[in-house]
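User: Hi! Is it possible to get a structure for several chains at once, not just one? Here's what I have:
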Amino acid sequence: MSTPSTNPNDVLKRRTEDPSDRIATGMDCPESHQSLHQGEIESSLDQAKTARFSTTTDAFWGGVRDGRGAPAMVLFAGMVGFGAMGRTNGFDVWFTTATSFLMFALPGQIVMLEMILLGASSLTIALATSLTATRFVTMTATLFPMLHVRDRNKALYAKVHLLAMTAWAVSLKEFATMEPKHRLSYFCGLGLLCWLISIPGTAVGFLIAGSVPMPVTLGLIFINPLFFLLTFTEIKVSGYRLAILLGSIAGPICYLMDRDTSLLTAGVVGGTLAYWIDRKWIRRYDQVKRGGV
Amino acid sequence: MEAITANLSSAFAIEQGMWEWLALIAASIGTYACRALGAMLSGRVSQESEFFRWLSAVTYAMVAALTIRLIFLPVGMLSTVPLYLRLIICAIAVGVMLINPSRRLVPALLIGTLLMVAVGIVQAF
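Assistant: Yes, the chains can be modeled jointly so their relative placement is included. Here is the combined structure:
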C-alpha cells in the first residue's frame, strides 16, 4: 500500500479514482504512519470542512458502502482461508469462528492456531498473539486524534474492537474528506461491516473445506501464507525489511530448537537484532548520506 | 453428495477443550488490550519513538517467521504439495505483484491461489 497522504487536497483528488482500489494489507501500518506527523493530523482536522455527509446516519452508511470494495473482499477471503485452516487442522467450528469474533486480527489468529497445534502453553500463546497485536496500538493512536473531540470519550473503548487493518487504512485515507463530527460514524459503519463479514467468512471457510474437492481446500488454506508473503513486498522501511529477513532466518532455527515457543522467540530475537542493527548502522548511514548530523 | 452430508454432520462436533478456550480468551484480552491502549495513548505519544520501532520490528519478525513456517514446514494438507512447487507458486505470485507498478494485491493473490488449486487437481490424478 502506498503511504496514505494526510493532505486533504491530495486525498480529495484521489477520490476520483476508485476508492476501493487500494488494498489494506495486514502489516504495513508502522511504516505507513512514519510520514504522519502530529501536525499533519491537526491540520487535517482544521482544513477538512467538506460536507460529504449530511447526517451521522448518512456517514455510517457511507462507511458501509466504502467497505464493500476490494479491501473487504480480501479480508473475507482471508477469513475463509482461516476457516479452512481450522477445519483441516482438526479444530471445531465454534472455536474457529469464535476466534474471528473475539480476536478479529488474522495474523494473531493464525499464530494462535499454530501454537495450539504445537502444544504451547496458554501463557505463551497469549503473549505471542498480544505481541502480534501491538500494531493496533500505533494504529489507534494515529487514527483517533482525527476524531471529533466530543466523540473521544469512554464509549470509544467499545468501538475500538472494530479497528483492524482494513478499516484503519481506508479510514485514514477517507477521514480527510469529511467533517470531524461524521468520522466516528463512518468508521463504525466500515469497521462493523468488516467485523460482521469475518464471522460468516470463517464459518463458510470451515464448512466448505471438507465438502468441496480437495484442490479447492488446498487453495483456501494457501490464501493466508501467500497474503502475508505478498504484503512483505510492500514494506519500504529498511529496518523493517531487515526484521522480516532476520525473522525468516530465526524462525526455522528456533523451530528446530524448541517448537512450542518458536514463534515468540523468533520474533523477539529477530526483531530485536534487526532493530539494533537498524539503530546502530542503517539509520546512521542514511543520515550521513543525506548530509545530516 | 454422501461426502458432503458426512462432512456437515461432523462439522459441528466439539473438538476443543478447556485449555484451548482459555488460550483464546487470554489471546483475545491481549489483542483487545492493545487496541484500548492505542485509544488511551492517542494524541499523546509519538509513533516515531524507539519503543514503537522495536515493537514493530518484533511484529514483522514474528509474522515473517510464521509465514516461513507455513510455507516451508506446513502441518496438514499443504505438506502433501512438494516444497519446490510451493516455492514456485510463491515466486510467481510475488513476481506478478512486483511487475505491476501499482502493486495491486488482488491479482497476485488470485493467481497464487488458483495455481495451488491447479497443483491439487494435477496431484489428484
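Residues 1-49 of chain A have pLDDT under 50 and may be disordered. The first helix of chain A runs from residue 8 to 14.

User: Great, thank you!
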